[in-house]
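ingest -> validate -> predict -> emit
validate: passed (alphabet ok, no gaps, 182 aa)
predict: started
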Amino acid sequence: MCNRKKLGVPIEAMVHVEHDPIAVYVMQWNHRDDGITHHYIKKFEDIYGDGTEPNESRIVQLLRVYGPFDLVTGAAPCHSLTGINASRNIHCDQAQYLAKTGKLIKRLDIVQHTNGIKNRVLFLSENVVFKESDKFDMHYSDKIHGLPAIRIDAKDFGPVKRNRLYWLNVRLVFHLLSHVLC
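emit:
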């Protein structure tokens, strides 16, 4: 990932949703003197709710406490979708985090807009490459066919092979430009 200072992107605050205490500790250690205010939320359901659709009152509360949001990045658990998992079940609860991430982003954008925030929420959601990814496209856009994922392999930009799918509403040119600048 490119350093935000190299791109000149000002970041004042970040909200992290992470249930693993070791991952939180590592994030806190890695970001300890970066001048950014970091907020940690333990469970995705604390902001999304427990239903199949986002809980609007929780999103309004999230916006009041931490917002407005300019950029949302997400990487839902992928183990239910990978080829390593024998069941590879896109309908199981774990796999639905990918759909819920898209639904949350769309709802957050609507809530911000209704509260007078003019800029759209920019987003980037990442997951492993899997055959039925098109079933999740509709959760990231209201367009008829949704927002198709873009497939990018890290080997095209460096020494590591990491083939992934990205749902984003930021032009790919920015990604390629950021690689050149880094």
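DSSP finds seven helices and six strands in the chain.
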